[in-house]
Amino acid sequence: MNTIDKTTDEVLRLAAEHFKVQRDQLSPDDDFFKKLGINSLQALDLLTRIEQHFQIELPDYELQGVSDFRTLAQRIQSRL
Amino acid sequence: MLDLRQYNSLGEALRAALERWPDEICLIEADRDRENARFTYRQFKEQALPLASALQSAGLQDGTRAAIIMTNQSKWLVSAYAIFFCGGVLVPLDYKLSAAEQLQLLAHSRADFLVIEYHLWRAVTQAEQFHNLKARTVLVTEAPASADLAGAHRWEDFRAAAEPTFIPRKRDDPACIVYSSGTGGRPKGCVLSHENYLEQCVALTSLYAFWPGVRYLSILPTNHAIDFMVGFIGPFTCGATVVHLRTLRPEFIREAFTKYKITYMALVPMVLKNLERGLRQRFADLPPRKRKLLNALIATNRALTRRRPHLKISRALLPQVHNAFGGELRALFVGGAFTEPETLQFFYDLGIPVGNGYGCTEAGTVITVNDLKRFRGDTVGKPLPGMEVKITNPGAEGIGEVTVRSRTLMSHYLDDPEMTAETIVDGWLLTGDLGRLDSSGHLQLFGRKKNMIVTEEGKNIYPEDVETYFAGLPAKEFCVFAANYLWPARTMVGEQLILVLHPETGQEITKELAAEVAERNRRLLNYKRISGYLAWDRDFPLTASLKIKRAELAEQIRQNRDRCTVVPL
């Protein structure tokens, strides 16, 4: 598994844990707003969880225009 | 506060404020638990005037349009003041729009100057339409030292030593061009005068006063009409302090309340709801005995504040709740979209009054607000002083279109006399919202007459704009509608857009076409997405210039289809 795939996988795992859904119900191209039924504030909560895990800081604007796990993972990857 | 009737422009009033309270703190910029900046009114002036001087040297003069695209932060306010000082017209743009949308609005406004944050500038320079940018001077904030700024200047270095010349403006000169919505089909640039803002500020601060020592927490973007007024013009003209928080993370909002002893904060229903959810969870987690005690205290507070708020009593009865908000919170303001009465009552019962308001950019922000002289969660309050509200063509229950007349109304939509004439008739603004004034003068809202939706984040979405994202769809024709416009509903929550799809003659909506619709929808910002599509099998009624006759099509759909025929996406 290459690095971006690994990051995507971690993001999916964290999202599943945070929103209490089965990991295998989520896939990289899922629209997380729709799939998890969350709003932008709840998505920011997930960002906080992701920051703690990867020990990075993601400004709120990094979530702007992002709605799928794969793109989110790319934004994280660029800061690792 | 300053007597704003003595001033002719925002620049003049702000300039007087900087002289009047030199040693008071006017602005704090916090980012998470860090503090990036803290300025007294004197220091704010020292930040802004060298910038104003450089802007003047670069050609910014009276009437020059200058856009700002930034998250809420101190440089937004410093730049805005410098622009007003030079007599410029401010164009505050939404940083959450896509770069392509921002470029469209920059072109529409014909802004000559642009102040923008680095990460947003990077996106703008990478957009296909970047070559259309006509702004002759671009200032970029917070750019890394090695960054290629594509011809733009570094905001932090854009300073001149010469004393700038203050340029006076008249009351009816334009102060701002604010886009209430619209990027694709028909941008709606509301031209608001200095008088509009000064009058609005007088009216609002007569109900919710600011003074030196008041601290306003700003989490909404300053381009948002509410934050521009209550998070900039209002506090500054009263010697108060604005605390910018550059994140919406709930944990840092909570921290900011206690760290800065916040007095007021404006928010949109979604954030208020989130605060409510957090509090309810904390209450539910209490041991049964403590929870019972808390409920009894809340009931006592409700009884004692039935007629009007009593902050001292509420703080004494519920100290833990109030301490969690810093202990000095006087009120929250909510607007931009509809808020459920239960949420408003929840906070009021805790001794935290919520000034629930209703307004629109065209009316100069706020039309009505709860004056708390007996709190009402079931209305959007009474008209602001100086605001005339009437209900036109009321039905049997007194419900009709909310129309407004006031000195705060915009003068016109930029470059759109036709839409201006449709919106302001004989000096009255037709809001397109359906409401009723009750016997005590409170306004209740019941839905919309116009084809649009408002999200719980306070964003106005017009179907015509969303349509542009479906251009080239392999179908004969299509049209986007607000579902509540097609099938009127007495609600202002959970509004949705739908796509009416007419496939090629003799064809049905194939799996491929449905997948294409879903894919394009996915590419839209989440709050702009359609919730489903409706199959339609007749030609759309068209005007002579081949535009869709929306009202006629809506009527046909209303008569032939139910809401349940929408295929969800």
Unreliable spans of chain A: none
Percent of residues of chain A in beta strands? under 5%
For the largest interface in this structure, which chains are involved and how many residues does each contribute? A-B, 18 and 22 residues
**Rounded radius of gyration of chain A (Å):** 11 Å
Q: Give the biggest beta sheet of chain A.
A: none
* C-alpha Rg of chain B (nearest Å): 24 Å
CATH class of the largest domain in chain B: Alpha Beta
CATH architecture of the largest domain in chain B: 3-Layer(aba) Sandwich
Physical arrangement of strands within the biggest beta sheet of chain B: 2-1-11-10-12-13-14-15-16
In the CATH hierarchy, the third-tier topology of chain A is known as Non-ribosomal Peptide Synthetase Peptidyl Carrier Protein, Chain A
> Average pLDDT across residues of chain A?
89
Report on the structure:
The complex is a heterodimer of chains A (80) and B (569). Chain A is mostly helical and 80 residues long. Chain A has one domain: Non-ribosomal Peptide Synthetase Peptidyl Carrier Protein, Chain A. Helices cover 56% and strands 0% of the residues of chain A. In chain A, helix 1 crosses helix 3 (40-54) and helix 1 (3-18) packs across helix 4 (69-77). Chain A is globular and about 25 Å long. The two termini of chain A are 17 Å apart. The model of chain A has no long low-confidence stretch (mean pLDDT 89). Chain B is of the alpha/beta class. Chain B folds into 3 domains: 4-265, Rossmann fold, CATH 3.40.50; 268-448, ANL, N-terminal domain (Rossmann fold), CATH 3.40.50; 462-568, ANL, C-terminal domain (GMP Synthetase, Chain A, domain 3, 2-Layer Sandwich), CATH 3.30.300.30. In chain B, 34% of the residues lie in helices and 23% in strands. Chain B is built from 18 helices and 28 strands. In chain B, the strands form 6 sheets. In chain B, strands 2-1-11-10-12-13-14-15-16 form a 9-stranded mixed sheet, sandwiched between helices. In chain B, helix 2 crosses helix 3 and helix 4 (99-109) crosses helix 5 (118-126). The longest helix of chain B is centred in the N-terminal third of the chain and has 17 residues, at 41-57. Chain B is globular. Chain B starts with 9 loop residues before the first helix and ends with a strand. Chain A binds chain B through residues 31, 33-34, 39-41, 44-45, 47-48, 57, 59-61, 64-65, 67-68, and chain B through 32, 71, 95-96, 98, 119-120, 246-251, 270-271, 274, 456-457, 522, 525-527.
